[in-house]
Amino acid sequence: MINVKNLTKRYVNINAVDNITFNVEENETVGLLGPNGAGKTTTMRILTCFMPATAGTATVAGFDVFTDSLNVRQQIGYLPENVPLYLDMRVNEYLMFRAKLKNIPRRERRKKIDYCLDLTGIRDVQNQITGTLSKGYKQRVGLADTLIHDPKILILDEPTIGLDPNQIMQIRQVIRGLGEKHTVLLSTHILPEVEMICDRIMIIDKGKIVAMDTPANLMKQLKSSSNVILEIKGDGGKIKSSLSGIDSVRSVTWKEKEDANEFYVEGSGEDDIREDIFNCIVKDNYILREMKRQPITLEEVFHQITTKETEEVSDNA
Amino acid sequence: MRNVSTIYQREIKSYFYSPIAYVVISVFLIASGFFFAGNLQFWQEASLKGSLDSIQFFLLLLTPVITMKLFADETKSGTIETLMTSPVTDFDVVFGKFLAALSLYVVMILPTWIFVIFLTIFGNPDFGPIFSSYIGLVLMGSLFVSVGLLISSFTRNQVVAAVIGIVSLIILWVIGFLSSYGDGWFYETLRYAGTFDHWESFTKGIVDTRDVIYYLSFTALLLFITVRNVESRKWR
Fold this sequence. Notes:
The structure holds two protein chains of two kinds. By secondary structure, chain A is α/β, with parallel strands linked by helices. Chain A has helices at residues 40-47, 69-75, 91-101, 106-119, 135-147, 165-179, 191-197, 215-221, 236-244, 274-284, 298-316, and strands spanning 2-10, 15-24, 29-33, 55-60, 63-64, 76-79, 153-157, 183-188, 200-205, 208-213, 227-233, 249-257, 260-267, 287-293. Chain A folds into two domains: 2-219, 3-Layer(aba) Sandwich (Rossmann fold); 227-293, Alpha-Beta Plaits. In chain A, α3 (91-101) packs across α4 and α4 (106-119) crosses α5 (135-147). By secondary structure, chain B is mostly helical. Chain B has one domain (2-231). Chain B has twelve helices and no strands. In chain B, α2 (20-43) runs antiparallel to α3 (51-67), α6 (90-109) packs across α12 (209-231) and α11 crosses α12 (209-231).
């Protein structure tokens, strides 16, 4: 549905988007992840025909974003960051205006608006002026607007930013529901979010794609850093020195906890170090109360990938 | 064309949701009414002589206030992004906004017909120059509105848009006067470019196609530049 090839957007002195290539399949939900200023919004603005690329091509639903822009815009629903609305209009009136702009036939407008009001849960505020709505409701009005012409492709720029936890859950559910029948490209920097709703993740940093895979695969790739958390009873200092003695252990840190000590052990290689630790503890006769592998979160994946890039760059410099 | 009307309707509503329309229209009517009375007393004549010049001057000051928000507000609030990613052309947007502002301008000058009614009650005015003057006012309005629209598309600050708009219109008005300082093609061009000369013939009851063409072509040129400027976000 979305094909991007060697896309570059150059501003005066930096490449906001630097030669990226990716595809999004039909009915796939792809999360665009990256630190601030990585080029997420720029990429989305190019795909929605708000600004053109400096080089490269992009097609959305088979239409070129530069030469066939009106057709592309008819096919997409775009929710920009910060959800701009006309603050002097009522919700109903705003959606009616947007429905007209998006060429929905007169007879269907009311029906589509009602459908979107229910889907995003804003029926109660349909007669309020958008300027008086809270952030969460504005966000939903924006979402209702992106859905109103039943677009094949949804491009959502940080759809859950600034919402309270309940609202985030609701919006996520809506998006996940939409993902079944729509192609969704969304950007965020909340990692559990992409983990939950996306089929694939694309991490971009400084305008380049640094990783693209399913959430599960991305985490598998980084399982290598095998860190273990232990809870052991006994003299902390002694235990630390015997744990440090294990070959496969790189570092040990510990802190006292009520009646036991908590250790954080970092392995040096890719292998599982839990057996070595177990043997060591049995040998020295300590009381082990808990041993668990530290689960790798997307935060770490993200951090590792984006900081690795920085190191490489500074090495080159 | 349907998109033009959608944009037009929204802009018109938005004028009347905000206090701008009411304030501008009130200020204009109070000021022009005051000057109508003054001129009438001074000239003792059943015509709009003198009053029209003051009306024109107030329009010059107030039209940029009508147009200041058209693009500046959209850029500032970010709604330009949702607007321009909808399936509408840049021309639809520019033209819809232009028509909306011009309509408000017409609404603003319509009540001045009450002056004409007064004149007919108490005197016997010559309707020729009055009709031609109003044709001239509307044509001049389309030029003023397109100047304001263009300037609004350059900035995200409404106050800046209004101030630069007023200054531009004053310049456009006075360059015609400069032509009396000399002869030759340069002064001739100034005379043609200034609005004053073209306006004057309308007040005398002359609807000259040259003047009509001046206003229409100037308006078209400015709208064209506005469309280009709105598009320019694409190659900046």
